Amino acid sequence: MQKLSRESWIEAGLHMLDESGYAQLSAEKLARRLNVTRGSFYHHFRNRADLVQALLLRWQADYTDAVIAYADAVEDPGLRLERYLLIAGRLQPGREVAIRAWASKDGAVRTALERVDARRREFAERLAQALFPGALPADVQRFARVACLTFIGFQQTGPHGRERFAELIEDVLALARPRAGPQP
Known about the structure:
Blueprint: H1 6-20, H2 27-34, H3 38-44, H4 48-72, H5 77-88, H6 93-103, H7 107-131, H8 137-155, H9 159-176
Helix pairs in contact: 1-2, 1-4, 1-6, 4-5, 4-7, 5-7, 6-7, 7-8, 8-9
């Protein structure tokens, strides 16, 4: 039997979420997947709740904090949106889908999901303010809600959903751009 790190268990747990969803996540199944004894799990985690917390913190770091930091590394709002869509499009949608399903059954997961969703909405609001200078606060909030909910919906459709999400955002931005010629 090989000795694994806490990180190995977290990675295996995330892959299990990607492939099988939250219902299959257990110390015993992870130990079998890693070809180690279940006792190794308790060397790295106090209990299942400790593992769940570690998985959720990693998911937030990888799927929200890193994505927003990458996008925010540039000043231009259009480029910031492109960078956000680029990195978000590379993420595994199954993980997000599994966590959203899990949140409907587990309060700790729901709390983490609400925290992540709030952070994403805040980013979308800041982006909308930069993309649409002078927009009313209600319009900025509306854009952020629509962008976040649309992204969630497109995740449900798999890899092609991400492409359609990017196309939809481009269509929305095209509507906001000033048009040449007389207005009706």
